Structures are given as structure tokens and as C-alpha cells.
Amino acid sequence: MIIRVFHARIRKGEIADFNQIIQEQTVPILKTSEGMLRYYGGVSLDEDTREFIMVTLWRDLESLKRFVGDNWMIPAVTPDGAALVEEMHVDHYQHFEQG
């Protein structure tokens, strides 16, 4: 299983709009993507940071690549969302089985 952690700093005053775009554009795509197992999105409790994260769990790397393409190491948002983002990055992790 692959864990993808997307981080973004949202432009001042745009968090509500960004959240709406995520709910209306990104989440429906995630829900229908083959190999996407779960997703968790959230905003920082410290409002001054204007940080947003989206953690997605993927069955395997091939599933993730089908979703974001060959440039899977690069963060991706919809064009509407990108206009509201100051900076972003993404990290990937291989899940390990707990014993």
C-alpha cells in the first residue's frame, strides 16, 4: 500500500474556497479512482498557518500513477485549486504491515 501525503499552504482568505473546490472537484474523482482505498483531508488547527493536507491510501504504485500520471512525485491539484495555493509539496511512503 502507498501512502501519499499532500501539503499545501493556501492563500490568505481562501481556505473556505479551497475546501469547497476539494469537496466538489477532487473528492468525487478520488472516490471513483481504481485502487484508491481511503482519503483524509484536513486544515491546520492553527489558522495562521493556512495549511491543508490530504492523505490518500493507494493499493499500489500503479494505482497512484493511473490517478496522477507518470509525474506522481509532483503535487497535483485541479486548476481551480491551484489558483488558491501559495506553495505545495507531496510525500510518498510504503506502508508496512503491523505485526
Labels describing this entry:
99 residues; alpha+beta; Alpha-Beta Plaits; four-stranded antiparallel β-sheet; 4 strands; 35% strand; globular
Molecular structure report:
The protein has 99 residues and is α+β, with helices and mostly antiparallel strands. It has a single domain, classed as Alpha-Beta Plaits, CATH 3.30.70.100. 29% of the residues lie in helices and 35% in strands. The protein is built from three helices and four strands; from the N terminus they run E-H-E-E-H-H-E. A four-stranded antiparallel beta sheet has the order 2-3-1-4. Strand 2 and strand 3 (51-58) form a beta hairpin. It is globular and about 40 Å long. The two termini are 16 Å apart. The relative contact order is 0.32. The model has no long low-confidence stretch (mean pLDDT 93).
Helix content: 25-40%
What spatial order of strands do you see in the largest sheet? Answer: 2-3-1-4
Summarize the helix and strand pattern as letters. EHEEHHE
Strand content is 35-45%
Task: Kindly provide the radius of gyration, computed on alpha-carbon positions and rounded to a whole number of angstroms.
Answer: 14 Å
SS content category: alpha+beta
Would you state the CATH class?
Alpha Beta
Poorly predicted spans? none
Which architecture does the CATH hierarchy give at level 2? 2-Layer Sandwich
Overall 3D form? globular
Distance between the termini: 16 Å
Biggest β-sheet description: 4 strands, antiparallel
How many domains is the backbone divided into?
A: 1
According to DSSP, the number of beta strands is: 4
